[in-house]
């Protein structure tokens, strides 16, 4: 009996096989239980001998079952580990890492340059009042120059700002006419334009304003020259051309020199060798006055530039819509490691 049981245990492959061996040999209806149950019928002197033998056989079988069980379990664990093991020698899948948008980068580079010249960075609301967007900038209602900036009105008094210049007026107002102002303001602006390669109904501007005693046109030229050389390269020259803005007098447009050439990065340079990059001028006395600054004591300059245009010039990008359609193939060319 013992031999038979041990053989079956040996052959058992799974925990289930083993369990049925246990039931058939050690169970309530098994042969050993039967022997022990039949003890009463045996002569008294044989009982201890038979009892001891039966118990011993039971013990041997039980131990053999436990041993085999351990082996089966270990095998199962090993099989599972084998299945789940990771091949650390496989090449890793590439992880796509994003980066700041090109415009975000342009703006922080522009900010860094002006912070280096002592300007602070300020922001203002994109939904602006008619007062700050136009009136405080010397564009009273019915002023024909309002047409220069076709606007998205929300109510009669509220609109999406058409430029960042209202932040000039807000900052001067906050300083209450008795403190120098030296700030730039980056942000989104909105105009009722039909989108094409060079127009967008929403784009970015960086405004600059410097108001103090004795600020002159030559200060404007010096600051912008410094900016152009640091941003585009030492070899660049600037030139100022007369222009018109209602909030500056005199007003200028600034060009930077560019190489007339063919091929990548050159297509945006005009044949003249100069390309316009921003507008600016001396803050109009009326604008100073409305903001509480005495134009007899204070003077200032202001300028506004478009980061999209600047990025297009710097990198030879031919369509402003690339900035906003979020094609990764375009964007990732300008991610920096
Ligand atoms: N606000 C002007 C524009 O949007 C730019 C500008 C700013 C001009 C400051 C002069 C001074 O066209």
UniProtKB/TrEMBL annotation:
<keyword id="KW-0648">Protein biosynthesis</keyword>
<dbReference type="GO" id="GO:0005737">
    <property type="term" value="C:cytoplasm"/>
</dbReference>
<keyword id="KW-0030">Aminoacyl-tRNA synthetase</keyword>
<dbReference type="GO" id="GO:0006432">
    <property type="term" value="P:phenylalanyl-tRNA aminoacylation"/>
</dbReference>
<protein>
    <recommendedName>
        <fullName>Phenylalanine--tRNA ligase alpha subunit</fullName>
        <ecNumber>6.1.1.20</ecNumber>
    </recommendedName>
</protein>
<keyword id="KW-0963">Cytoplasm</keyword>
<dbReference type="InterPro" id="IPR022911">
    <property type="entry name" value="Phe_tRNA_ligase_alpha1_bac"/>
</dbReference>
<feature type="binding site">
    <location>
        <position position="249"/>
    </location>
    <ligand>
        <name>Mg(2+)</name>
    </ligand>
</feature>
<keyword id="KW-0460">Magnesium</keyword>
<dbReference type="InterPro" id="IPR006195">
    <property type="entry name" value="aa-tRNA-synth_II"/>
</dbReference>
<keyword id="KW-0547">Nucleotide-binding</keyword>
<dbReference type="GO" id="GO:0000287">
    <property type="term" value="F:magnesium ion binding"/>
</dbReference>
<dbReference type="GO" id="GO:0016740">
    <property type="term" value="F:transferase activity"/>
</dbReference>
<dbReference type="GO" id="GO:0000049">
    <property type="term" value="F:tRNA binding"/>
</dbReference>
<dbReference type="GO" id="GO:0005524">
    <property type="term" value="F:ATP binding"/>
</dbReference>
<keyword id="KW-0067">ATP-binding</keyword>
<dbReference type="InterPro" id="IPR004188">
    <property type="entry name" value="Phe-tRNA_ligase_II_N"/>
</dbReference>
<dbReference type="GO" id="GO:0004826">
    <property type="term" value="F:phenylalanine-tRNA ligase activity"/>
</dbReference>
<dbReference type="Pfam" id="PF02912">
    <property type="entry name" value="Phe_tRNA-synt_N"/>
</dbReference>
<comment type="subunit">
    <text>Tetramer of two alpha and two beta subunits.</text>
</comment>
<dbReference type="InterPro" id="IPR010978">
    <property type="entry name" value="tRNA-bd_arm"/>
</dbReference>
<dbReference type="GO" id="GO:0140096">
    <property type="term" value="F:catalytic activity, acting on a protein"/>
</dbReference>
<dbReference type="Pfam" id="PF01409">
    <property type="entry name" value="tRNA-synt_2d"/>
</dbReference>
<feature type="domain" description="Aminoacyl-transfer RNA synthetases class-II family profile">
    <location>
        <begin position="102"/>
        <end position="333"/>
    </location>
</feature>
<dbReference type="InterPro" id="IPR004529">
    <property type="entry name" value="Phe-tRNA-synth_IIc_asu"/>
</dbReference>
<dbReference type="InterPro" id="IPR045864">
    <property type="entry name" value="aa-tRNA-synth_II/BPL/LPL"/>
</dbReference>
<keyword id="KW-0479">Metal-binding</keyword>
<dbReference type="InterPro" id="IPR002319">
    <property type="entry name" value="Phenylalanyl-tRNA_Synthase"/>
</dbReference>
<keyword id="KW-0436">Ligase</keyword>
<comment type="similarity">
    <text>Belongs to the class-II aminoacyl-tRNA synthetase family. Phe-tRNA synthetase alpha subunit type 1 subfamily.</text>
</comment>
